[in-house]
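pasting for the record
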Amino acid sequence: MIVLAVAVFLGAAVQGAIGLGLGLLAAPVATLLAPELMPGTLLWLSMLLPVFTLAREWAHVDWWGLRWAFAGRVPATVLGAWIVSVSSPRVLSVVVGLVILLAVALTVRTIRLPMRRGVLAAAGTVSGISGTATSIGGPPLALVYQGERGPLVRSTLAVYFLIGAAFSLVALAVVGELGRTQTVSALWLMPAMVAGFAAASTLRAVADGGRLRPAVMVVCAVSAVTLIVRAVVG
């Protein structure tokens, strides 16, 4: 739990600065050290951390984009919960990881994903499946918003994570995959999460100084590699 608390602290600091990162840093550690805590513990934290971001930047939320992202996320959450209940999510993790890497590669050199209804819904769909099955669901939507201002990215992703994680937790509870141990562990890890968010102020200033897009790209790429490696070696 001490090692996992350190990972949660670092993940919360990164997410507090650029909008995502908690799942990237904490999920692999939890999977290796305490797989029985996955994905419920990280989903609880993913639902609670955005509250602190929204307390600072609520006015910047892109409600139009969220509407279409959730149009894809809601049905995909049901599918993700079903996958957790009937099979190992390894193949899914590899597929999602490869899709994210492809999106990163395309947006680095050639295209930027347009802020359109279909693109947002597709990002929500991939995120809903991946987030529910693996607790790493932020990269698809973050890639769509990578070119926007820091406050808009952080606040919009915060609303998405808060509501999306709540959907995922309910879905896991319905299929019997959300245990008491996962919930209690999330409570124990909350102080580390809060401390990490408090430490994000310096990183936030750097990200808002023109480095947000590269930071988002790096975190998304590392998230994808993490998903693939975890599936292969796990």
